[in-house]
Write a structure and sequence with these properties.
Blueprint: H1 6-11, H2 13-29, H3 38-72, H4 78-89, H5 101-109, H6 115-122, H7 127-145, H8 149-157, H9 163-203
Helix pairs in contact: 2-3, 3-4, 3-7, 3-9, 6-9, 7-9
Length: 204
């Protein structure tokens, strides 16, 4: 599905970046001479980074879906195909908004795919936890990005700004990424089958 695999990139280059941040955090936490609050400060940076990388995954996955759909159509010229691709991507929320469930849903619905409904159908037990984890992650990211200390304190009180919580959230997002990737691939197969049948009827 495209030259670059969104899920593979999430697991490799995006995963490596997050791993490096986690390692830096662990190194600082083991340093007895580290300044007071140093660990807490780096914990704050982990959340915006995780949001950014998951947003990148979602954008990559959307790009792959767009490219696959464009390739299935019989365009008279490459220029028309390129213009259509640009039109589909224009105004895409994932290019300038946080990857909230609503933003992700709207972008994939523009391709005819109700992605959350499909994910929920395939994983009814896991879906609520995945979605809640993503929503909480984005809220924490916003609190950190806007230096909203009152909200940050609330997240600390709830034990939602700890390294362990971040690690668990990252694990859930990986599970969600796998599910989203599977849903998109199934949808593209469905579209391909429908398109092929239509072309066969036209030839008859």
């Amino acid at each position: 599905m495209g030259e670059h695999d969104a899920l593979e990139t999430w697991r490799t280059s995006r995963g490596a970046l997050l791993d490096s941040l986690a390692l830096a955090r662990q190194t600082i936490s083991m340093n007895r001479t580290a300044a007071v609050g140093a660990v807490e400060n780096i914990d704050r940076t982990l959340y915006p980074a995780l949001v950014a990388e998951f947003q990148g995954f979602c954008r990559d996955l959307h790009n792959e879906a767009v490219s696959a759909l464009i390739e299935e159509a019989a365009w008279p010229t490459e220029q028309l195909a390129a213009l259509t691709t640009a039109a589909i991507r224009k105004g895409r929320g994932l290019d300038h908004k946080n990857p909230t469930p609503s933003v992700i849903d709207e972008d994939f619905r523009s391709l005819g795919l109700p992605i959350w409904r499909r994910v929920q159908q395939l994983h009814p037990e896991d879906y609520p936890d995945w979605r809640a984890s993503l929503e909480t992650l984005v809220r924490i990211r916003n609190a950190v990005a806007h230096s909203d200390q009152e909200r940050i304190d609330i997240f600390f009180t709830k034990q939602q700004m700890t390294f362990a919580y971040w690690g668990n959230t990252r694990k859930r997002l990986t599970e969600l990424a796998i599910a989203m990737n599977s849903v998109v691939r199934r949808y593209l197969v469905e579209i391909t089958i429908v398109t092929s049948r239509g072309e066969d009827r036209d030839r008859q």
